[in-house]
Design a protein that fits this description.
The protein is mostly helical and 168 residues long. It has helices at residues 4-33, 37-63, 83-110, 114-144, 148-158. It has a single domain, classed as Ferritin, core subunit, four-helix bundle (Ferritin). The chain is elongated and about 55 Å long. Bound molecules: MU-OXO-diiron (FEO). MU-OXO-diiron binds next to helix 1, helix 2 and helix 3.
Length: 168
C-alpha cells in the first residue's frame, strides 16, 4: 500500500500526463490549421502516448490500494510563431515533466517505498527517449533554416510516426 504523500504526488503526475495530452492536442490542432499535417500527426500520436502514461499511474495507484484524486486540467498555452518555436516549447515542456518524474523518484526513496521506486523507473527511461526525440526534431528544423521544401520533407517524415500503445 502506498502512503498519502506518494499517493498525492502520483495523482499530481496523472494530472500532468493528461495535461500533456491536452497540450499536444492543442499543438496538433494549430499545426493542422497551418497545413502542417505531418507535424500535427506527430503531436496527435504523442497525445495518445500521454494518455497511456496517465493511465499506467492510475492503475498503479489502484493496484497499490491508493485513492484516485483527479484534479482540474488547466488549459494549455502555446503562442508560438513558427514550427521551431513550437518544438522548442515542447522540449521545455518535456524537461519540466522529467523534473516532476525526478521528484516522484526522490520522494519514493525518502519514503523507502521500493515498489514506487521500481515502478517509476520506466518513466525515467521514457523521459530520456522523449527528450531525445524532441531535441532531434528541433535540430532538424534548425538545419532546415526556414527552407520550406526542407520543412515539408520533415513534415512528411513525421507523418509516418506510428502509435505504439503502452499497455496498462
Ligand atoms: Fe508523459 Fe511526455 O511525458
Amino acid at each position: 500500500m502506498i502512503n498519502e504523500k506518494i499517493q498525492n504526488i502520483l495523482n499530481e503526475q496523472i494530472n500532468k500526463e493528461f495535461f500533456s495530452a491536452y497540450f499536444y492536442l492543442m499543438i496538433a490542432a494549430n499545426l493542422e490549421d497551418k497545413g502542417l499535417n505531418g507535424f500535427a500527426h506527430w503531436n496527435r500520436i504523442q497525445a495518445q502516448e500521454e494518455i497511456d502514461h496517465g493511465m499506467i499511474i492510475f492503475n498503479y495507484i489502484l493496484n497499490s490500494d491508493g485513492k484516485i484524486i483527479l484534479g482540474e486540467i488547466k488549459p494549455p498555452q502555446c503562442d508560438c510563431e513558427n514550427v521551431l518555436d513550437v518544438f522548442e516549447h515542447i522540449y521545455r515542456h518535456e524537461k519540466s515533466i522529467t523534473s516532476s518524474i525526478n521528484d516522484v523518484t526522490i520522494l519514493s526513496m525518502d519514503e523507502c517505498d521500493l515498489a514506487t521506486r521500481t515502478f517509476i523507473e520506466w518513466y525515467i527511461n521514457e523521459q530520456v527517449e522523449e527528450e531525445h526525440a524532441v531535441a532531434d526534431i528541433v535540430k532538424r528544423i534548425k538545419f532546415a533554416n526556414g527552407d520550406k521544401a526542407a520543412l515539408l520533407q520533415i513534415d512528411r517524415e513525421l507523418s509516418k510516426r506510428e502509435y505504439k500503445r503502452h499497455e496498462y
